[in-house]
Amino acid sequence: MLLCTHYTSGWENMLVRACGLLCCVQLLALEGLVSSAVRAVDGRLLAVLWRRYRLRAHFAAIRRFLLLGQGDWVTAFIDLVRQGC
Question: Where are the domains of the chain?
Answer without folding.
Answer: 1-53, 54-85
